[in-house]
Write a structure and sequence with these properties.
Blueprint: H1 2-14, H2 17-41, H3 47-62, H4 65-79, H5 87-113, H6 116-124, H7 129-159, H8 171-181, H9 186-216
Helix pairs in contact: 1-8, 1-9, 2-5, 2-7, 3-5, 4-5, 5-7, 6-7, 7-9, 8-9
């Protein structure tokens, strides 16, 4: 029974792997980009930059990812005539903007966590603010960001399942189609969907552990 289920279900779910992975990659690139932009802007002396990025962060952290996904895909074209092109961009942008808002706090807090003595020493060497950030503060902060960035990457993978709600043919979408055609298989289908996501997450879990070890190198306990 188990073997027959695997033979019947796995090939169907496998059709959605490409979509799941491409959405994850696009979401991660956009999410990390937004994290650094928003995180650095929130440390800016420019009140306008701080205000705009704070508004972005609070909006995307304070509302549901599903609502954001529907808003970008359904509401933008109707209310403002802005069409993102297709489901792929709407899904990737929604996940990227959402997790970028959360990760911007990781960027901001990591930069603030660098010992003040480091900045003071760089100032004593007559470095400009940009040089202090680029050469002294930022490299140390990035090491502190890595473990959390790895954890958020795993969360973004799990969030890709939401793109099935806007008819993207990902793993969950094909699982839903299979369940609709054979309701009795519903439990087995969703179990193997879970297995698929876990298998995809394993390399990311391993990568996150490596990041944690790397971030601790040379750090005094």
């Amino acid at each position: 029974m188990i073997i027959s289920n695997i033979i019947e279900i796995f090939p169907v779910l496998a059709k959605g792997i490409n979509v799941t992975i491409t959405v994850l990659i696009a979401s991660a690139i956009f999410g990390y980009l937004m994290a650094f932009i928003a995180g650095l802007c929130r440390l800016s002396n420019n009140i306008i930059l701080r205000g705009v990025t704070t508004f972005y962060v609070e909006i995307f952290r304070g509302t549901s990812l599903i609502v954001q996904l529907f808003w970008l895909f359904y509401a933008l074209p109707i209310l403002f005539g802005i069409n993102l092109g297709n489901e792929f961009w709407a899904g990737s942008l929604a996940i990227g903007l959402n997790y970028g808002a959360y990760m911007s706090e990781v960027v901001r807090s990591s930069i603030l966590s660098v010992a003040k003595g480091q900045s003071e020493a760089a100032t004593a060497l007559n470095m400009s603010r940009f040089q202090r950030m680029r050469l002294v503060i930022f490299p140390q902060a990035v090491r502190m960001m890595l473990p959390e960035f790895g954890n958020y990457l795993i969360q973004m993978l799990k969030a890709t399942s939401l793109v099935s709600l806007i008819s993207m043919h990902d793993i969950l979408y094909h699982g839903d189609l299979l369940r609709y055609s054979n309701i009795a298989m519903g439990g087995s289908v969703y179990f193997y969907v879970l297995v698929f996501f876990f298998i995809l997450a394993l390399p990311l879990i391993f990568l996150t552990r490596k990041m944690e070890k790397f971030s601790k190198k040379g750090v005094a306990n």
